[in-house]
Amino acid sequence: MKFYDSLGLPNPDRVRIALAEKGVLDQVEIIQVNLWEGEHRTAAFKAKNPSVTVPLLELDDGTALSETTAITEYIDHTFEGIPLTGRGAKERAVVHMMQRRGEQKIVDAIGTYFHHATLGFGPEIELNQNKAWGDAHLQKTLDGMAYFDAVLRDQRHIAGANYSMADITVFTGLNFSETYPKVMVPQGLTALNEWRACIGARASCAFVPETMKGR
């Protein structure tokens, strides 16, 4: 398999952690895609993924999987190891619900702020910026952080008792938030910060610089 990656961005990081959790990261050819240089917009990459986004997982038979959740589902059901998408119908439903909330409230929200209210990937990549729209998503991100802090005051993980792709989604979103647009998780969100420290200590997160693991 080939994994088209961009280290430090939340969606590729989600796939890298999933591969590491399954113990198969060393079995995958990793190809770094420089989004700042627009490598995801080349004709060659667009032929593999018309959405011109990373991550992309290219299987040995040439099949190209381009949506992060779809890629995670494939990884989870192909390789042995810790279940990432839930155990049984109810848990699977809750995991998918909470991981989608992680996308909406953290990953997508901070991404919109990054692309519209900051320099983002630079003027040649960031076209049609709308600063007011971006600024609105800054508050949405902060509200999302407060929401997950409240969730984690009552349970160990984002989707309940067990570690899942929902944890991976929120964790990578917060790392990106603090690393690129420099939107920090408030110190007062103690449950969220304690949870981040636990997730960041997992072996699958070893690629994350210490400054990205939470405080």
Taken from the alpha-carbon principal axes, the silhouette is globular
- How do the helices and strands follow one another from N- to C-terminus? EHEHEEHHHHH
Helix content: 40-55%
CATH topology of the largest domain: Glutathione S-transferase Yfyf (Class Pi), Chain A, domain 2
CATH architecture of the largest domain: Up-down Bundle
Give the number of DSSP strands: 4
Distance between the termini: 35 Å
CATH classification class of the largest domain = Mainly Alpha
- How many domains make up the 3D coordinates? 2
Q: Proportion of β residues? A: 5-15%
Radius of gyration: 17 Å
What is the strand arrangement across the widest sheet? 2-1-3-4
Query: What is the residue-averaged pLDDT?
Result: 94
Largest sheet: 4 strands, mixed
Q: Kindly name the structural category.
A: alpha+beta
Continuous helix count: 7
Uncertain residue segments:
209-215
Brief sketch in words of this structure:
The chain has 215 residues and is α+β, with helices and mostly antiparallel strands. It folds into 2 domains: 2-78, 3-Layer(aba) Sandwich (Glutaredoxin), CATH 3.40.30; 88-205, Glutathione S-transferase Yfyf (Class Pi), Chain A, domain 2. It contains 7 helices and 4 strands.
